Amino acid sequence: MNKAKYTIAFLFLVAVVAFAQGPPKEAGNVREPELRELVKLDPTIKLDIRYATRNNFLGRPVYKEARAFLQKPAAEALVRVHQKLKEKGYGIVVHDGYRPWSVTKIFWDVTPADKKIFVADPSQGSRHNRGCAVDLSMYELKTGKIVQMPSEYDEMTERAHINYACGTPEAKHLREMLRSAMESEGFAVYEPEWWHYDYKDWKEYPIQNIPFSKIK
User: Fold this and answer.
1) Where does residue 68 rank: exposed (0-12), middle (13-18), buried (19+ CB within 10 A)?
2) pTM of the model as a whole
3) I need a surface site. Which of 62, 142, 152, 182 has the fewest CB within 10 A?
């Protein structure tokens, strides 16, 4: 078996084990999930769902559909961020939103120990699993092109940190523009990743493992 086939076989096995184990059980969640598809709330939000393609750190798709969801309050807040950025000539491009727990388990199992800061521990669940985290960047309204940030999306290096001092002045300016707009609507950045934002009410939602195709 060549390396590529071995990798695919290993990831498939990890996925099977993850589905069998299921997400951790929690007590105290008070809100019923209300996942909303972002482009149905505002079709001018762009999608670049890397995990539905081979263009990601795994090198293979883990989603069968290129779709993005958030819990209703977070989704509505993100639409408001999008409208604020439009006033400055930019729009939101979403790389990921709600993520089934089994995918978080795959990420954890295949990520080296020295890079674990960039993935969530499945024993605790991810804020993506709760539908209250979004990975995003911006695009220019005039050209439709995704802007250049200090690092690439999902880049597991120091350049991804929200306080990384190097990079071009323009890239840092855009990074801060995004951060300001997101914070104004109740999102907080995950500092090691400039693209990752958590919505303020994430603790109130349960960890979910439902595939996109079964979200009503």
Assistant:
1) buried
2) 0.88
3) 142
